[in-house]
Amino acid sequence: MAALGKRRPPRPRSGVSGLQERRREAPASPPASGEETVLTIQGLAHDGRGVARTAAGKTVFVEGALPGERVEVAVHRTRQRYDEAHVRALVEASPERVTPPCAHFAQCGGCDLQHLSLAGQRRHKQAVLRELLARRGIAPAGEPELLVDAGEGYRRRARLGVKVDADGNVHLGFRARHSHRLVDIEACPVLVPSLSALPEPLRRLVEALEAPRRVGHLELLASDAGVTLVVRQLRDHAADTARWRAFAEAHGLHLARRVGRETPVFEWLTPRPALAGRLRVASQEVTLSFSPGDFLQANEAVNQRMVAAALAWLAPLAEGERVLDLFAGVGNFSLPLAAQGARVRAVEGSPTMVERLADNARRNGLAVKARQADLNDGAACLALLADPAPGTVVLDPPRDGAETACRLLARHPVPRVLYVSCDPATLARDAAHLVRAGYVVSRWAVVDMFAHTAHLESMLLLESPHAGQPRQGATTDG
């Protein structure tokens, strides 16, 4: 036990990781006699894979293929109703195929649409949102708005996995797609430059540690205060802690760590910085303070556009209009709405986040009432809607959605519901409760928070002609 976490003698690294490693370990079986190996891609699945069909009608999902292309495929997984394959060779390429900006594209699972032009990616996301809403009987007018910014250098937070293999080789990077294997990353073009420059120096540091196996992962965060590095350690190691401090000093980083297995303890190893971001609201600026571990939108520029769109959609806000912000976080929507004159009640499930939200309101001189509640509890949600009744409800839930709140809003309608979602499937499910109760989608948008990925964020503004008229008999089952 004394050697737990200690370095083993290293052997030369194989250089094999991610998708290449999976294919080497489990090579694709050759197709059966007469089975097609060249297919025409008919469209894109929601996750960004190409969709084709064999002459027999079986669906094939093809990684790395684009609509209109003819590709030679290798099937790597066969199922009863469909096959999964990857491109062995391009026979005829799409005019929207581009050279991926990242050298790790073929292995890393982080950005799966880099081979498709940005314009093509965004059309795909618009189509996905439209289709998912249509499946629930929702057909908004016109095309969804696009809230976008740069395709590279946008991500201000990242989590790097660290693993020491059986041969003592250090791997540091992101996960391969559908795998726990790490792809070694030297730099990442979607990270802001101050973070993209760090993976390779960090790997060299971990290789120099006496107990590299005690490092679980590394969190990187860029803010107005500079770059913060949080080290996740299973156990303390005094000599290695000194190395981390020296690295932080040499690179001008703020340094913190989480130590322990089941309930890790967080502590700063350098003076605590004032971590904050800014949002422009008309002629003033709102400052959002946060701590490592708080939820923070990864794309600062697109988040600014999203908040600005929300304010524009809800304008004009009557002076003192009551707004109920559910899943409020540290105040991403609450504070800008209050800065526009709304009387905001902000509700969050995490007590720590509620404290942060209240502190942010005080620092900005804004009258926001912050409170904690379980927003999956029907009685708690009903009480929030009744005392006092809001004119606008803002929903910004996690991926599970806000079905409890939407069922209640269907029965107790308010004039406007602004729903901000990181999962279009749960958004469509929840919005269906509202639409069946008479709400109308008046604005909708695709928020391209994560360019080069299939991840889709979106916003709906739903308005009710029945506001203030409880509909106790309304059917809200989905």
From TrEMBL:
GO terms for biological process: rRNA base methylation. S-adenosyl-L-methionine binds at residues 297, 327, 332, 348, 374, 396. The active site is at 422 (nucleophile), 422. Residues 1-11 have a biased composition (Basic residues). Residues 1-36 are annotated as: Disordered. [4Fe-4S] cluster binds at residues 102, 108, 111, 188. InterPro entries: 23S_rRNA_MeTrfase_RlmD (IPR001566), MeTrfase_TrmA_AS (IPR030390), NA-bd_OB-fold (IPR012340), SAM-dependent_MTases_sf (IPR029063), TRAM_dom (IPR002792), U5_MeTrfase_fam (IPR010280). It comes from the Bacteria. Residues 30-89 form the TRAM domain. Its EC number is 2.1.1.190. One of its GO terms (molecular function) is iron ion binding. Gene3D superfamilies: 2.40.50.1070, Nucleic acid-binding proteins, Vaccinia Virus protein VP39. It catalyses: uridine(1939) in 23S rRNA + S-adenosyl-L-methionine = 5-methyluridine(1939) in 23S rRNA + S-adenosyl-L-homocysteine + H(+). Keywords: 4Fe-4S, Iron, Iron-sulfur, Metal-binding, Methyltransferase, rRNA processing, S-adenosyl-L-methionine, Transferase. Belongs to the class I-like SAM-binding methyltransferase superfamily. RNA M5U methyltransferase family. RlmD subfamily. Catalyzes the formation of 5-methyl-uridine at position 1939 (m5U1939) in 23S rRNA. NCBIfam families: rumA. This is 23S rRNA (uracil(1939)-C(5))-methyltransferase RlmD. It comes from Halomonas stenophila. The lineage of its organism: Bacteria, Pseudomonadati, Pseudomonadota, Gammaproteobacteria, Oceanospirillales.
